[in-house]
Amino acid sequence: MTAIRPEIMPRHNSKAGEALVEENLLTASQLDDVLEEQDESGQYLGEIIVENGYAPAEEVYQQIAEQVAVPYADLDSVPIDVSLLPLVPAKLARKFTLMPLYVEDDVLYVAVSDHLDIDALDTVAGNTGYHVEPMLAPPSEISRVIDEYYTDAGNIEEDMEILAEEQTGEEGTEGEEPSEAELEVEASDTPVVRYVNLLIQQAIDKRASDVHIEPHDKGISVRLRIDGVLHYTTPPPKKMFSGIVTRIKILSGLDIGERRIPQDGRFRLEGSQIDVRVSTLPTIYGEKVVMRLLDKSKLMLSMKELGFQPKNQQIYEEALRQPQGIILVTGPTGSGKTTTLYSGLGNMNRDDRNIVTTEDPVEYELEGINQVQVKSKVGLTFAASLRSILRQDPDVIMVGEIRDLETAQMAVRAALTGHLVLSTLHTNNAIATVTRLVDMGVKSFLLGSCLSVVMAQRLVRQICPACKASYDVPPEMRQELDLPDDGEYYHGEGCDQCNDTGYQGREALFEILNIDQEISRLITEEAGEDQIREAARRKGFSTLRERGINKIKQGITTPEEILTNTVGTGDEGTDQAENCDDGQEPERPLISGAAVPAKEADRGSEAPNPSVAERIWWMRAKLDLTQKELADKVGVSSSTVGSWERGRTNPRRDNLRKLRRIMDDIETPTEAST
Questions:
Q1: Spatial separation of the C-alpha atoms in residues 205 and 360, rounded to whole Å
Q2: I want to staple 511 with a disulfide (CB 3.0 to 4.6 A). Which of 22, 307, 438, 456 is the partner?
Q3: Where is mean pLDDT largest: 289-298, 327-336, 627-636?
């Protein structure tokens, strides 16, 4: 069977565009821009209009449908025959962005976002045996319906549970390790293949970034990292474990016979832009496997989509336009640094620029950009590759991470010789980055002359819109974040849509230090962090904590998220200075034992006192208190006590006094003193 072809019209369809102008959905100049872009990209007219935000998707596609004489599909009201779903696989529906709707008089009506995509229509016709007629609908609406009908997360979990029950039986006896031939047979077993496919599909549907498969003494655990937090999902029976690991190894091109050393590989999901990076690690109970899902379609975000405030966006864009300098992005692993840098590279990726990156590992393959994979075992380090890159006539260089003095010095040299360098560093905040580089051995006068912008960033979870509700923030949490008592604050109560977490999706927080002439001079003069912060404040600098508080007031995230993710970023004040009136450093009292000079202790998590963390943990164990119970006694939040115990921050002076009173009748252990 074949598709019933609509009236063939050129993709450059000015008639439909003129109708949109007549309906005041588009201006004449916007139409000219759209048609010009269509000539260059070959994209569908409606797609370009919607992507540029010129008009609402529904109205645009309705108008185009009328002009090209193709029926419009309102997917909220049009009937959808679920019995047709097996005839059009989910992979096919996602690849072509189409949805089978219903059959009438032996004609299958299909919702499409491009009625001229004959390949898609012919493929559906060949799969189903029906004549096919297209109906127009916005791509976002089609994707929504595909998600709703094809990949119901609950159905996938149910399938996984049924599969696990079917395969549960005698686990077999311990014996010799299976041979490679036996492993290949296990990996090709239908239940193993089906479980791996279901697991990856579930991870995609739940927006997971990582999948952890972990062997234990009595079974297997499988966890998905969703919005930065790990959640358990249905595990397979233990007898399937070796087959599952081997199946994943085969997909990613790893040696299935080698189980003694870690291995790294990757594979791409067919018909999608999702790469899966695989890492195996031998543990005492078998190989632990982690799969990281890298969705290329969500990588090249626009500056607005990254979540910048207008002023910060302007600072970043101006730095990217400079012919030379260093742009640094700092933050912990998983805070979105790579996405920010790749978006910047995408912004600069033009025919007249030579862009080269050195990465470990190469997260995404970028068209038009020369990417180098670091291989330390053969001597190809960041510094070594950067040295060679400088001989390749680059305009822009991205260094995955500055880990040592040699790499830092090479990056500075590259910037001073007329190259724009982008890189990352692990520091708590933007201003601490300057101190860190100087501590590494970079000369301050060189740093002051080549730094352009330093950004610190974090990702915080957004409140789930489906279960969002107002609630009363605990007084100690309001006090710690300086939130008004009369403000209205929100959290997620938990629902099926967010897996009962109360959160869905993440939002970026940015702290941007613009290195202007004054800041450059202060860096050159080796001024302290406080002086640099004071100068930056006069120009509108704001910290991660302050950005987070704004997100709380806007109802985007919760106080708990901001307290957890902005701890120790250098934006918390201290009351030590006002108690120092004799010209000497005051001492921060500890719960017991020796004190530490306040200058060092007041750095927050940059230089935490580990003995404080140890003593708080010991005190809680001695008194048999939960974190919540100790928090209530001291008058702080549970997350604050957890932060003290992890050594990420030190208690403030007033909290230390309360802790000392609780400790009065407890003998401090020798181990803690040590």
A1: 28
A2: 456
A3: 327-336
Instruction: Give, for 242, the enclosing helix (H) or strand (E).
Output: helix 241-251
CA distances from 279 to 88, 265, 294, 360 (A): 33, 7, 14, 13
458-484 residue pLDDT tens: 999 999 988 999 999 988 888 888 898
For the chain, the 3-state helix, strand and coil shares in percent, each to the nearest 5, are: 45, 20, 35
Q: What are phi and psi of 362, to 5 degrees?
A: -75, 110
> What does DSSP assign to residue 652?
P
Does residue 533 contact residue 432 with C-beta atoms inside 8 Å? no
| Both tokens assigned to 275 | 């790469």
- Residue 242 CA to residue 109 CA, distance in Å, equals 45
C-beta atoms surrounding 555 within 10 Å: 15
Q: How far apart are CA 517 and CA 240, in angstroms?
A: 63
Task: Return the closest-CA partner of residue 253 out of 271, 236, 268, 242.
Answer: 268
Whether the pLDDT of residue 437 is over 90: the answer is yes
> What percent of the chain is predicted at pLDDT more than 70?
77
Strand ranges in 236-348 using DSSP code E only, listed in sequence order: 263-268, 274-283, 286-295, 325-330
Contact of 121 with 131, CB cutoff 8 Å = no
DSSP 366-426: -TTSEEEE-BGGGTB-HHHHHHHHGGG--SEEEES---SHHHHHHHHHHHHTT-EEEEEE-
Give the DSSP H/E element, type plus range, for residue 319: helix 310-321
Please tell me whether residue 97 adopts helix, strand or coil conformation.
Answer: coil
Cα separation, 386 vs 133, in Å, equals: 55
**Per-position b or e across 509-535, b if 16+ CB within 10 A of its CB:** bbbbbbbeeebbebbeeebeeeebbeb
pLDDT digits (tens, 9 = 90+) for 555-608: 999 999 998 888 644 444 433 333 333 333 333 333 333 333 333 333 333 333
Number of C-beta neighbours around residue 193 at 10 A: 14
Question: Using one digit for the tens of pLDDT, what is the confidence trace for 153-167?
Answer: 445 555 566 656 655
Q: pLDDT tens across 16-28, in order?
A: 666 677 666 667 7
Alpha carbon distance 417, 413 (integer Å): 6
- What's the pLDDT score for residue 134? 93
**What's the 3-state SS for 76-88?**
CCCCCCHHHHHHC
* 3-state SS, residue 20: helix
The answer to whether 116 touches 47, Cβ cutoff 8 Å, is no
Tokens of 644: 């003290």
**Predicted structure pTM score:** 0.59
